[in-house]
Amino acid sequence: xxxxxxxxxxxxxxxKKRYEIAGLKISxxxxxxxxxxxxxxxxxxxxxxxxxxxxxxxxxxxxxxxHHDCFVGPDTNSDKVFIIxxxxxxxGEFDEQKTMLxxxxxxxxxxxxxxxxxxxxxxxxxxxxxxxxxxxxxxATKDSRNKMVASGE
Length: 153
Prior knowledge:
Blueprint: H1 3-12, E1 17-21, E2 24-30, E3 35-39, E4 45-49, E5 53-57, E6 68-72, E7 80-87, E8 94-101, H2 106-114, E9 123-130, H3 131-138, H4 142-150
Parallel strand pairs: 6-8
Antiparallel strand pairs: 1-2, 2-5, 3-4, 5-6, 7-8, 7-9
């Protein structure tokens, strides 16, 4: 991703809030209660009322080449991190990952994720890890980071 792409993305979704969770710097583009506007590959448009803060982990790069997207739950002191492999509902192919921070259980994290999507096919799988393990992987060197988090190891 080049600087022009980053500036374009930031202009579309300006940072409205910032967190530091266990040393991770989080930027929130869509706070809880905001309407997030979307457009799919077929030209359909809609809005989602955010039930949780949504943004990304700064200084990270996910399997899709962008920052690690994340939802932030009610307990920012939780040591559990849940990584969801998001799929393209029509094809079942991998799309990107969503990180769920601030949740205590896999069920709670999955429910928080699903409330933001209108098709069950978006949810592929989920992996749980400790905050320490997540930080080690997400802040690792670029080459190893993408392999470790994307492969679900």
